[in-house]
Design a protein that fits this description.
130 residues, mainly alpha, two-stranded antiparallel ribbon, 6 helices
């Protein structure tokens, strides 16, 4: 999608962990901790390859695989700053109409369908204002 509309799109990835899932919250915290070391994308790829619930041991192994500073990662993982970022992201998402992931917005409006054709149509309709 970014290749099709390079002048009109911006990819923004915001954490939106499932509140009832400790594993989801832990994964989102870990992704933000990896971001602090400029390794978000590599860490995110590891998260998506993982199957099943995620443990602290799993996260440490992933952090090691993407060459994070492990003590710093472990500190950031449970830091108040990361937890505040998550709460803020969730509150912002809810205020914008996010009910789950992934959510795609075009001109600040969440789309109900997120397949390529639906997103392309929404972009084409919004283009005069982009």
């Amino acid at each position: 999608m970014l290749e099709t509309y390079p002048q009109n799109l911006r990819l923004v990835i915001m954490p939106f962990p499932a509140m009832e899932s400790q594993s989801s919250w832990l994964a989102a915290s870990a992704a933000l901790a990896a971001h602090k070391q400029m390794r978000f994308q590599a860490f995110r790829e590891q998260l998506f390859q993982h199957e099943g619930p995620i443990s602290a041991t799993d996260l440490n192994e992933m952090a090691d695989m993407v060459a994070l500073d492990i003590p710093r990662f472990q500190h950031d993982l449970v830091s108040t700053a990361i937890q505040r970022l998550l709460v803020h992201a969730i509150n912002s998402g809810v205020a914008r109409g996010v009910t789950g992931t992934p959510t795609v917005f075009v001109n600040q409006t969440p789309l109900e369908q997120i397949d390529f054709d639906a997103i392309s149509k929404a972009i084409q309709q919004a283009r005069p204002s982009l």
